[in-house]
């Protein structure tokens, strides 16, 4: 019964979305208040209906209603509650419903918080948002209905992929989707602006909070996914340049460029067409990611089930959204009036360089991900593009980006002098150089690149914080606008991420040994003894657990208990690593195969600064949220009064 | 000129979408890894015989002037079970010379399996450690190669062969190369 | 100091999940090279994993073959050629630089170059406009008279 209600709610939502996609647009072009107001009502109604539908599916999962096909395929009565809930979006249909939910909720948010927007702009944005919603709702209803019934209902389900039964991965999709869908709002703003024929500082001021919010969530989503891979896959790697990882990185890069480009539009009324293009591209890359994951054109560890028919539908949708946007762009963008002029050496120039480098980075990732497909189609040749390629092409390009990043805030708008700006950063430069030299001489003399990267990380932190140096000297730190504070936090946190990545990748240590209970080994100053191996029963799995007692200088330090879990329903093995962290390094242990006669393979790793990767990313998002909380963004640009022809007044 | 720049993103999209549509409609398998052996001289063959008392397998078997099929199999491999009757038929009905190589299989297990299902192999070898498999670019079992009389690999099937493969590609190659 | 020494002795270039203790070469320099090469070779039956990270049978065979070739004295290029001869360019996680992959390697740098040059040209055209032009004598006289009277 509940599933049918959910299904019906979804159908109603599609109908409402269709209305929301058309009527406000007509209202905007005719300047008809009533038609435009319908946009707000429709957005709120649509959100309510999709929430109902999502609630219905969640209820089916929580109560283990196995008459619903989706629940049968992806759930099991013995699963812990948290994973019953996260199982809702751990499959294709459910995750599409989550997309639709977040789309509708964002639409409602624009309707509620966008009261300060001019009516025509707001109705157009709501209409575009609804248009996208129509696409997703139609996709759901016609090809991926989560509410299909199964008759007769089986006694139990097939269970959820064991890899997904994990707190980290439970929240990874919602955060990612908040990011992807957040970019749909900026896309809607861009299309609305092109339709209006006007991009101005006010528009940029309105776009910024939505871009920031989307960017923050996407940052968190990517970081969570990376952290999960680190502790579940068992070998200390955290980024593999897998196509699906790349699919989430590309919108992030474009979104970062968009964020910075919008600042120039807001402050100097320049870079308009570039900003609009980035807004279209950020969301298009999100859709591209969805396409790559679900269509089956690429193989990946992460991909959902492959289905060419679904793939064609998503491709069609991608073409409609991106193609439509780009057609509008090609037609209208040339008419956007260029604004303030500026010299190459200026804050604007710096932000253009930023745009350029970020876009090149995006192209690099795009090429690397799609080239094997293109080559295979054209020539039948098979070629692989893996981490070595990206390390050779992506990483070096980050160097000029990082170098310029700290200099930018010291350049003035319109025209500036480079040398004085550089001189102001001389302390940061010296400190970074020293850090690189220390890394080279004292930590590891084999890799100059690692030392250089380490220096860049320090440069990012010190150089970003230096932007507050003047305020500190004058004692006006407390009145720093939150947007500036957010910028400093985010930029410095990027440095923390860089330091963590370099240290873990270049300077970790490992030891691997076959051990029997009672055996000891010595590792990096720690004495590790394998105390016992025991069988453990979990809610839906059986595991082999090792107990490793770690002592330092005879004194007990910690106990690590890595496991190997066998999920009985799916008959799959998943390794549970044991990690002990002191926030400066991770002590990482995994249990391999083994038996009592030969012993078990135990692997131990020391990953220096690994926690900084995810803490840094979290701080980056935090910086974004601080920026978001700036009052200037919430007040928004002044609302332009409706243009009404004044009643004819006799000249007095 | 300026106008042209604005159309560039759209053109890029069209190009990419074209490739995607092509990929989705071509029925291509994204997981296929291709084969570099086809058209090249067959790799080395230097194996102990699987069956007692037989001489070791050597390259000479591949350059006899007659085309041969080389089939890598294992008793623990389920698809091998599915394709095996086709080899039996090839050997009995069409008189094909088939070399069977047991890959990562204990000698006794492989022999028992062949005894149970029938032994179509004129020659049979044992590749316990997988070294021969590696030399032949094997990615698993079953895999089948067709080597012509001069020792050049003409066909390479990854996975079990089907009736269709048999009729459309293997039999014509066997007859044609004679 | 002893800890640092222990650290140095146990340093490997990268962790490898699937490498067995029994596979490790006694010569640490060779083992390091084996790990680096293993990181750059693709497991042909997995989805996007290197042979060092995969438990597949074929991956194990490839790891063993890499170590045997290194012990036999091959240099890194020869080991890669060995694998390419058997599995094609597909097995290289670092795509080769040849005619077929020119666009892959040069595409992004080219975009950077072209876009960068276009922007620089546009910037040069604008530069003249923004720099404040000094007043001509005529204009200076007019300004003075306006200011005075």
Keywords:
heterotrimer, B: 178 residues, alpha/beta, Glutaredoxin, 2 domains, 6-stranded mixed β-sheet, C: 149 residues, mainly alpha, Helicase, Ruva Protein, domain 3, 6 helices
What does this structure look like?
The complex is a heterotrimer of chains A (652), B (178) and C (149). Chain A is an alpha+beta fold and 652 residues long. Among the domains of chain A are: 160 residues, Four Helix Bundle (Hemerythrin (Met), subunit A), CATH 1.20.120; 98 residues, no CATH class; 102 residues. Helix content of chain A is 63%, strand content 12%. Chain A has 20 helices and 10 strands. In chain A, helix 8 runs antiparallel to helix 19. Chain A starts with a helix and ends in a 17-residue tail after the last helix. About 2% of the residues of chain A have low confidence. Chain B has 178 residues and is an alpha/beta fold. Chain B folds into 2 domains: 30 residues; 146 residues, Glutaredoxin. Chain B is built from 5 helices and 6 strands. Chain C is an all-alpha fold and 149 residues long. Chain C has 2 domains: 79 residues, Cytochrome C biogenesis protein (Helicase, Ruva Protein, domain 3, Orthogonal Bundle), CATH 1.10.8.640; 50 residues. In chain C, 59% of the residues lie in helices and 0% in strands. In chain C, helix 3 runs antiparallel to helix 4. The longest helix of chain C has 29 residues. At the A-C interface, helix 12, helix 13, strand 1 and strand 10 of A face helix 1 and helix 5 of C.
Give the helices and strands of chain B as they follow along the chain.
HEEHEHEHEEH
* CATH fold assignment of the largest domain in chain B: Glutaredoxin
Q: What's the level 1 CATH class of the largest domain in chain B?
A: Alpha Beta
Can you identify the CATH superfamily of the largest domain in chain B? Glutaredoxin
Number of strands of chain A: 10
Shape of chain B: elongated
């Amino acid at each position: 019964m509940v599933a049918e209600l959910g299904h019906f709610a979804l159908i109603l939502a599609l109908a409402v979305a269709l209305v929301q996609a058309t009527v406000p647009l007509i209202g905007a072009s005719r300047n008809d208040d009533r038609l435009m107001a319908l946009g707000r009502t429709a957005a709120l109604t649509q959100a309510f209906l999709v929430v109902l539908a999502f609630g219905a599916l969640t209820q089916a999962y929580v109560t283990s209603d196995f008459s619903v096909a989706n629940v049968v395929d992806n759930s099991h009565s013995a699963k812990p509650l948290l994973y019953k809930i996260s199982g809702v979006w751990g499959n294709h249909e459910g995750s599409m419903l989550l997309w639709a939910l977040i789309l509708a909720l964002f639409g409602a948010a624009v309707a509620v918080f966008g009261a300060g927007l001019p009516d025509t702009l707001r109705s157009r944005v709501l209409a575009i948002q609804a248009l996208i919603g129509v696409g997703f709702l139609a996709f759901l209803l016609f090809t991926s209905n989560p509410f299909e019934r199964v008759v007769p209902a089986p006694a139990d389900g097939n269970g959820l992929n064991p890899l997904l039964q994990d707190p980290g991965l439970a929240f990874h999709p919602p955060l990612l989707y908040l990011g992807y869908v957040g970019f749909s709002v900026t896309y809607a703003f861009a299309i609305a602006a092109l339709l209006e024929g006007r991009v101005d500082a006010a528009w940029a001021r309105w776009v910024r909070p939505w871009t920031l919010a989307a960017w923050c969530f996407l940052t968190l989503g990517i970081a969570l996914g990376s952290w999960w891979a680190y502790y579940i896959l068992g070998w200390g790697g955290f980024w593999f340049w897998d196509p699906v990882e790349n699919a989430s990185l590309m919108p992030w890069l474009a979104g970062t460029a968009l964020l910075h480009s919008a600042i120039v539009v807001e402050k100097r009324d320049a870079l308009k067409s570039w900003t609009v293009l980035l807004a279209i591209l950020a969301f298009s890359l999100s859709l591209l990611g969805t396409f790559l994951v679900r269509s089956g054109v690429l193989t990946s560890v992460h991909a959902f089930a492959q289905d060419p028919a679904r793939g064609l539908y998503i491709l069609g949708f991608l073409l409609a959204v991106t193609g439509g946007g780009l057609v509008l762009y090609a037609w209208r963008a040339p008419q956007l009036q260029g604004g303030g002029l500026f010299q190459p050496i200026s804050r604007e120039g710096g932000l253009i360089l930023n745009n350029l480098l970020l876009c090149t980075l995006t192209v690099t990732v795009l090429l690397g991900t799609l080239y094997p497909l293109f080559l295979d189609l054209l020539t039948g040749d098979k070629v692989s593009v893996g981490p070595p390629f990206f390390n050779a092409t992506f990483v070096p390009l980050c160097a000029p980006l990082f170098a310029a990043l700290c200099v930018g805030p010291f350049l003035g708008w319109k025209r500036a002098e480079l040398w004085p700006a550089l001189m102001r950063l001389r302390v940061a430069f010296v400190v970074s150089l020293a850090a690189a030299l220390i890394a080279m001489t004292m930590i590891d003399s084999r890799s100059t690149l690692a030392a250089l990267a380490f220096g860049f990380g320090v440069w990012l932190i010190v150089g970003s914080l230096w932007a507050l140096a003047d305020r500190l000297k004058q004692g006006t730190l407390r009145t720093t606008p939150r947007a500036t504070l957010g910028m400093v936090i985010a930029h410095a946190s990027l440095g923390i991420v860089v330091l963590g990545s370099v240290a873990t990748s270049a300077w970790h240590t490992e030891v691997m040994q076959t051990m029997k209970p009672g055996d000891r080994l010595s590792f990096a100053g720690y004495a590790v003894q394998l105390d016992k191996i025991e069988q453990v029963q979990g809610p839906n799995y059986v595991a082999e657990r090792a107990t490793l007692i770690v002592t330092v200088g005879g004194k007990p330090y910690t106990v690590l208990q890595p496991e190997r879990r066998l999920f009985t329903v799916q008959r799959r093995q998943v390794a549970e690593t044991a990690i002990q962290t002191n926030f400066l390094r991770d002590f990482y242990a995994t249990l391999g195969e083994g038996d009592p006669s030969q012993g078990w393979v135990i692997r131990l790793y020391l990953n220096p600064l690994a926690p900084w990767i995810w803490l840094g990313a979290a701080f980056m998002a935090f910086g974004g949220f601080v920026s978001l909380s700036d009052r200037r963004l919430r007040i928004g640009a002044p609302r332009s009064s409706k243009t009404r022809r004044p009643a004819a007044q006799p000249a007095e | 000129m300026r106008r042209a720049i604005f159309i560039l993103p759209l053109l890029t999209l069209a190009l990419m979408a074209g490739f995607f549509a092509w990929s989705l409609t071509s029925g291509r398998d994204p997981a296929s890894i291709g084969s570099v052996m086809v058209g090249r001289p067959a790799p080395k063959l230097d194996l102990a015989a699987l069956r007692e008392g037989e001489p070791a397998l050597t390259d000479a078997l591949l350059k006899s002037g007659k085309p041969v099929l080389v089939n890598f199999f294992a008793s623990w491999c389920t698809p091998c079970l599915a394709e095996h009757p086709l080899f039996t038929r090839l050997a009995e009905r069409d008189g094909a010379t088939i070399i069977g190589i047991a890959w990562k299989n204990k000698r006794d297990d492989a022999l028992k399996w062949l005894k149970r299902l029938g032994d179509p192999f004129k020659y049979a070898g044992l590749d316990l450690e997988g070294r021969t498999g590696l030399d032949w670019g094997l990615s698993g079992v079953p895999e089948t190669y067709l080597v012509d009389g001069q020792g050049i690999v003409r066909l390479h099937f990854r996975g079990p062969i089907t009736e269709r493969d048999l009729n459309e590609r293997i039999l014509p190659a066997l007859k044609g190369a004679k | 100091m002893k800890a640092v020494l222990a650290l140095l002795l146990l340093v490997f270039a990268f962790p490898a999940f699937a490498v067995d203790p029994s596979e490790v070469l006694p010569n640490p320099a060779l083992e390091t090279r084996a790990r680096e090469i293993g990181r750059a070779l693709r497991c042909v039956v997995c989805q996007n994993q290197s042979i060092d990270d995969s438990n597949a049978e074929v991956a194990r065979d490839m790891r063993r073959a890499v170590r045997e070739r290194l012990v036999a004295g091959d240099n890194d290029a020869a080991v890669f050629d060995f694998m390419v001869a058997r599995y094609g360019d597909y097995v290289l996680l670092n795509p080769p630089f040849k005619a077929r992959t020119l666009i892959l390697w040069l595409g992004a740098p080219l975009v950077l170059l072209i876009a960068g040059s276009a922007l620089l040209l546009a910037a040069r055209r604008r530069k003249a406009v923004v720099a404040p032009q000094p007043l001509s004598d005529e204009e200076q006289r007019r300004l003075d008279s306006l200011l005075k009277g």
